[in-house]
Amino acid sequence: MFIEAQRKNETSLFLVARVDGKIVDSLGFQGNLRKHIRHSASFKISVLKDYWGLGIGTFLLNMQRKLE
């Protein structure tokens, strides 16, 4: 399962936002393990269209910063 793999990876962070039990937003941050590219990472965020403009993505981004 994707989420379980992210939980076990020490260089990744995966957050979700739920509204009434429904996942409406996800944020993924994946760091690199290789020494020569360890300084780089990939970042992805996805919000269901019905929930755009409500600040949910911004909230998850701010949570990611607090967890660093």
UniProtKB/TrEMBL annotation:
GO molecular function annotation: acyltransferase activity, transferring groups other than amino-acyl groups
Every N-acetyltransferase domain range: 12-62
TM region(s), chain numbering: none
Gene3D superfamilies: 3.40.630.30
CDD domains, per the entry: NAT_SF
This protein's name: N-acetyltransferase domain-containing protein
Species in which this protein is naturally found: Anoxybacter fermentans
Taxonomic lineage of the native organism: Bacteria, Bacillati, Bacillota, Clostridia, Halanaerobiales
